């Protein structure tokens, strides 16, 4: 199995989509997975869920379980399958349950402020 560590992400983290801040948290988690860049997971309560629409898309990770996806609706466009969460993660990574992570790039930024 992949070596995964989950720790508290120090400081305050924000997620911006289409230039607008859709989440800010002092309770984010950092998931570090062997061979991959660390990923910040935001508590769902710290995300403006009104901007996220559930997607039919899902993926399966042997180490984490089945991920459900959300599209982000901004003023100018919909960013498909931009966020994901594990509603029922594998027991080893249970800390990320109820948290969302985001695909970063030109349209989405996750930053420590």
Plain-language structure description:
The structure is a single chain. With 113 residues, this protein is mostly beta strands. The mean pLDDT is 95. It has strands at 4-8, 13-17, 20-25, 29-33, 39-43, 52-61, 65-73, 78-85, 99-102, 108-112. It has a 7-stranded antiparallel β-sheet with strand order 1-4-5-9-8-7-6, with no helix packed on it. The chain has a 3-stranded antiparallel β-sheet with strand order 3-2-10, with no helix packed on it. The chain has a single domain (4-112), classed as Metal Binding Protein, Guanine Nucleotide Exchange Factor, Chain A (Beta Complex), CATH 2.170.150.40. The chain contains no helices and 10 strands.
Short description:
The protein has no helices and ten strands. With 113 residues, the chain is mainly β. The protein has one domain: Metal Binding Protein, Guanine Nucleotide Exchange Factor, Chain A.
Q: Topology of this structure?
A:
Blueprint: E1 4-8, E2 13-17, E3 20-25, E4 29-33, E5 39-43, E6 52-61, E7 65-73, E8 78-85, E9 99-102, E10 108-112
Antiparallel strand pairs: 1-4, 2-3, 2-10, 4-5, 5-9, 6-7, 7-8, 8-9
Pfam families: NTP_transf_9
Protein name: DUF427 domain-containing protein
Domain DUF427: 14-104
Please describe the structure with a list of short key phrases separated by commas or semicolons:
7-stranded antiparallel β-sheet, globular, 113 residues, 55% strand, Metal Binding Protein, Guanine Nucleotide Exchange Factor, Chain A
